[in-house]
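Example record used in the benchmark description.
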Amino acid sequence: MMAAGAILGRPLLAAVDAQPLDPGIPRRKLGRTGEMLSMIGLGGHTLALASGEEESIRLVHEAVDAGINLMDNAWEYHEGRAESLMGKALEGMRDRVFLMTKVCTHGKGTDVAMKMMEESLQRLRTDHLDLWMIHAIEKESEVEAAFAPGGVVEALELAKKQGKVRFTGFTGHRDPPLHLAMLKHDYPFDAVLLPVNCFEPDRTGFRSEVVPELNRRGIGILGMKSLGGTPATAVAEGKITADEAIRFSLSQPITSQVLGMSSLQNLRDNIAIARNFSPMPQAEMNRLTARLAGGESRFTQYTHPDYRDGQGLMRPA
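Model output (structure tokens):
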């Protein structure tokens, strides 16, 4: 089955405007916002897994100096430590980045969300967020709760009115129909974060259903899980290289791919991939997905029922 872009009879990257950024990391437009984001972003969860605070801070500084302006985080990552590390690292360079974090209400309402926002702002040492996203929609009940009176969507609106949030969005990991259910409410989300990788079979899913709908609506697309999440089992087993996996993700019609980087070498390798990027031909993408067919559940930890983002694979006691 051909990828969504080929099915629609248009070039795969046609939905994304790109322009080169000195020193060589391209930027792409975030949907209808007009914001230009580096094609790779720095993931806050993995940032906090670096060898220590000093290396985490150096990672952020080197990333920004290299041209990476998308900084990703979430209120619950490492019980707030990930936001605190990023906030400390961004002192004096906040205006050089597009800073996003996620509100982790998981079905709770406006009051809880607003309290989380204030805590995120304090940890990140900023007076506003560029993008605030409802994190990890996992159930139909969470979709309903988000749009109910007093739900988290009201918090998005309130935060924008207060000038503390510029753009809004939501995320999810396992269930493409839940993304579509969120979109059916026709709330003017600015961006959506979702898995974009070569492990998803060629069937109804994020790449074939959700991505085209987001592009149709002019909503910015942020990808994640290019290596299948931590640990990168497919890479460790030699089934695929990191370069192949990331290049595949960047060849989809998305704005940016958020990458987990826990060492300076990891960062430098990913910068090189972005600087040398060229779109992967459709035939090569087809061969890659065929090579990985049947191993999706083993290579994508985030698809397990007990997985909770920011906490890893939660196993029953």
